[in-house]
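Quick question, first post here. What does this chain look like in 3D?
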Amino acid sequence: MNADLGRLLGEAGAVLLDFDGPVCGIFAGYPAPQVAAELVDLLLRQGFEVPPDLASERDPLEVLRRTAAAGDHSATRVVEDALCAAECLAADTAKPTPYAREVIVAARQAGMPVAVVSNNSAGAVNAYLTAHRLAAHVSHVVGRAYADPDRMKPNPEPILQAVRVLGKAPGCCVLVGDSLSDIEGARAAGVGAIGYANRPLKAEAFYAAGADSVITSMGELASVLLEAVESRGVH
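> Answer (accepted):
Ran it through. Tokens below.
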């Protein structure tokens, strides 16, 4: 067992999960580059000024960030509304991450409430959780602040919002994420940070950013949580 992982979860009172990665691949059936291209095309069709290099952006969240950074609130709202709709559509064909269900269910059985803290829209997260019969196991969902990407992770605000709703101290919570923004946000919020290295080379970057532990499969997390369930005699 990963000793750091066992220690972290042994001391944790709640589990916070990023969505795209630890729970599912939201754009598995509706690729992110396609969504990004559609957002840029929408801006062009509505007459907004678009930097030439934005047309090659493959990350829809970056399209939103860069649109907001340009300072045109109308354009930002257009992108936000279209991205929310695209994410809800993508949730229909999202690919479940192996062992994510086991992690969520086992955490609840072990007495640890679960919250999802995502840079995706809350509507998309809730749609996915409902479709996959996970909504009853998740205590709270914090999604992207409307048309205000500066408040997305690594900003600690959404993480701290989840912590407050769960009624826990930050130091009693642990966040599982697959990006540096998750690790940096967790560090800023004062919660434990577990890096989900679902691709090679991520592990080193996660540790460098201050991750307390790194896993390469959500199955590692599920195993530790299931042991906790058994040790507590929860059935």
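The chain has two domains: 3-26+95-231, 32-91.
The chain has ten helices and eight strands.
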